[in-house]
TrEMBL record:
SUPFAM superfamilies from the UniProt entry: ALDH-like (SSF53720)
GO MF annotation: an example: NAD binding
Keywords for the protein's UniProt record, in alphabetical order: Amino-acid biosynthesis, Histidine biosynthesis, Metal-binding, NAD, Oxidoreductase, Zinc
Keyword Oxidoreductase: yes
Alphabetized Pfam families for the sequence: Histidinol_dh
Residue numbers annotated as active site: 324 (proton acceptor), 325 (proton acceptor)
Organism in which the protein naturally occurs: Leptospira ilyithenensis
Protein name: Histidinol dehydrogenase
Length: 431
């Protein structure tokens, strides 16, 4: 059963319309299950958190908060070196995103923007087989650079103790505490705070559908801020015959390895190249059987190779798709990139697989999915900064602009107080 290959035409979208519908994760059933959990944690605090942890994780907790500096860890030196290298690169890239407050004179008045960090952050780190310590770096480093003062790591408890790598990262990143509570109850605990868990005003990080549903629900009622709504991982690859079909197949499979609901879409102008990539996928299934059924389902059911008449059509379609990850493996990738408007993160050239951004290059891998890059951006320093606008009005400007304020406030029916608040100053100056 080879991957689906479609002769695509933007004027006849029926062959690829299903790709544009984007399999946004339907969280409605998960939300129904997490809302009672959230309410219970809100009302009963630590008691509810411990009860749900025992129910879902089969672990009875005495304490739900740990001081990372008090825990001994044993992380191999080569693993430390890898993560320290990633940390350095991520810090360097994100430091370049720092913003300075600014001001400008407008009509004689001093106007400006002052940037201030959000006060507190919780970074969720899944446990068990879905352990993503790299996401801890991605969530905490830009927040630290933005100036967030209170940061806690939220992660499910483990029967054998927390993974050394998570504790070690918490130590080197100098976060305030580790909250050993997972799932919807963990998100609710940091969203509302409990007797022992401080409240966080922003929550980021990957998790299962219940974690995603809890974040989405709590953000929807204005209790927390979150990174962009998350769905299954995805990659779009624009490639011509100059690309290596084996490398492209590997990149498609690297997304399929995330889960059976992941998707990998190849856009090309060459039927020959499309067939070559399809063959390489089949060879990879034989040579690398780990997570085979999951990868096959992702490739056969959620992925596709689209053959378009031109690279310009590939770019147009990619912008419609607005993928989480976009790779451009063409003879002139920068020229193609010039037409890209919507993507979470873009990987230029044959030597830029998504995995480099996932781990080590320095860009952030917490990205909008399911077409979200049309309105959301990757996580970054900006994600943790607020804009506070300010103005200092001069007496001369107020007197000059008052007649316009008078007319506008009268038009909106707010002249009695809005208009008067300016008028009394105007009249005072006439005395």
């Amino acid at each position: 059963m080879p991957v689906s290959i479609v002769q695509a035409d933007l004027d006849r979208p029926s062959g690829f319309q299903h790709l544009l519908k984007k399999a946004k994760e339907d969280l409605s059933s998960a939300k129904e299950k997490v809302i009672p959990i959230i309410q219970s944690v809100k009302e009963n605090g630590d008691k509810a958190v411990k009860e749900f942890t025992e129910k879902f994780d089969s672990i009875r907790l005495d304490s739900v908060v740990l001081d990372p500096s008090s825990i001994q860890t044993n992380v191999p030196r080569d693993v430390q070196t890898a993560f320290l290298t990633a940390k350095k690169n991520i810090e360097e890239f994100h430091r370049a995103q720092k913003r300075d407050s600014w001001n400008v004179k407008v009509d004689g008045n001093l106007l400006g923007v002052k940037y201030t960090p959000i006060p507190s952050l919780a970074v969720y780190a899944p446990g068990g087989t879905a352990l993503y310590p790299s996401s801890v770096l991605m969530g905490i480093i830009p927040a630290k650079i933005a100036g967030v003062k209170e940061i806690q790591l939220v992660t499910p408890p483990q029967k054998g103790g927390l993974p050394d790598i998570l504790v070690w990262l918490a130590q080197i990143l100098e976060i305030d505490r580790i909250v050993t509570v997972g799932g919807a109850q963990g998100i609710a605990a940091v969203a509302y705070g409990t007797e022992t868990i401080p409240r966080s005003e922003f929550v980021v990080g990957p998790g299962n559908s219940y974690v995603a549903a809890a974040k989405s629900y709590l953000a929807g009622i204005g209790q927390i801020g979150i990174d962009s709504p998350a769905g299954p991982s995805e990659v779009c690859i624009i490639a011509d015959e100059s690309a290596n079909p084996k490398w492209v197949a590997c990149d498609m499979l690297s997304q399929a390895e995330h889960g059976e609901d992941s998707s990998a879409v190849l856009l090309t102008t060459s039927a020959k190249f499309a067939e070559s990539v399809s063959k390489e996928l089949e060879i990879a299934f034989v040579e690398r059987p780990k997570r085979l059924e999951m990868k096959k389902k992702a490739i056969y059911e959620n992925s596709c190779i689209c053959i378009f008449p031109s690279l310009a059509d590939c770019v147009t379609f990619s912008n419609l798709l607005a993928p989480e990850h976009l790779e451009i493996q063409t003879e002139d990738p920068h020229s193609v990139f010039g037409g890209i408007e919507h993507a979470g993160s873009v990987f230029l050239g044959n030597y830029s697989p998504v995995a480099m951004g996932d781990y080590i290059s320095g860009t952030n891998h917490i990205l909008p999915t399911a077409g979200g890059s049309r309105i959301y951006s990757s996580l970054g320093v900006d994600s943790f900064l607020k804009r506070v606008t300010f103005q200092e009005i001069t007496k001369e400007s107020l007197n000059r602009l008052y007649p316009h304020v008078k007319l506008m406030s009268e038009l909106e029916g707010l002249d009695e107080e809005h208009g008067t608040s300016v008028k009394v100053r105007y009249e005072e100056d006439l005395k």
